[in-house]
Amino acid sequence: MFRGDFQSSIDPKGRISIPAKFREVFVETFEDERFMVTKCLVGMGDGSNCHGLSVYPYREWLALEDRVDRGEGFTSAQLNSIKRLILAPAVECAADKQGRVLIPPTLRSYAGMDRDVVIIGMQKKIEIWSQENWERVIGQAEKDFPSDTAALASLGI
Fold first, then answer.
1. Three-class secondary structure assignment of the chain
2. d(CA 119, CA 53)
3. What φ, ψ does residue 42 adopt, rounded to 5°?
4. Dihedral angle at the C-alpha atoms of 96, 99, 100, 102, nearest 10 degrees?
5. What is the pLDDT along the chain (157 residues), one digit of tens a residue?
6. Main-chain phi, psi angles of 117, to 5 degrees
7. Domain hosting residue 49, numbered range
8. φ, ψ at 122 (rounded to 5°)
9. Positive or negative CA dihedral for 2, 5, 6, 9?
10. How far apart are the first and last CA of the chain?
């Protein structure tokens, strides 16, 4: 599973270096070096969204597509939105020998990425955020963090 957070930057060619720890997970856990990069939206509590990128191991991506195809719990309009905003812009990628991956300009632009980025492990996927957007997302996470200590204790936190 993907765990940890890493500071990185985008090189002049639009490449991001995937941390070695995460590259090992692709091979050892998911047995495939391929992955899918797509848009990530996080609600900000004020009705706005913050934009980043999600990176799914290829096997997890196929499972996600299957769940979307089943569409349980969503209206057809919501499913079409998911398909248009998440599935359609996805790009299959693989890291080069130095662990770099080229992020297409359209996805970099969407996520507001021009230099400094934060790469975080989210169990079965990775998220990549511009430094500015990461600060907004983590600030919102702190606001949304549960205050119910019993519920937290039930999770072992």
1. CECCEEEEEECCCCEEECCHHHHHHHHHCCCCCEEEEEEEEEECCCCCEEEEEEEEEHHHHHHHHHHHHHCCCCCHHHHHHHHHHHHCCCEEEECCCCCEEECCHHHHHHCCCCCEEEEEECECCEEEEEHHHHHHHHHHHHHHCCCCHHHHHHHCC
2. 9
3. -125, 125
4. 60
5. 999 999 999 999 999 999 999 999 988 888 888 899 999 988 877 888 889 999 999 999 999 999 999 988 899 999 999 999 999 999 999 889 899 999 999 999 999 999 999 999 999 999 999 999 999 999 999 998 988 888 888 989 8
6. -135, 160
7. 5-155
8. -125, 50
9. positive
10. 19
* Cα–Cα dist 5/90, whole Å: 23
Strands 34-43 and 15-17: unpaired
> Which CATH number goes with the domain that contains 102?
3.40.1550.20
* Number of structural domains the chain divides into: 1
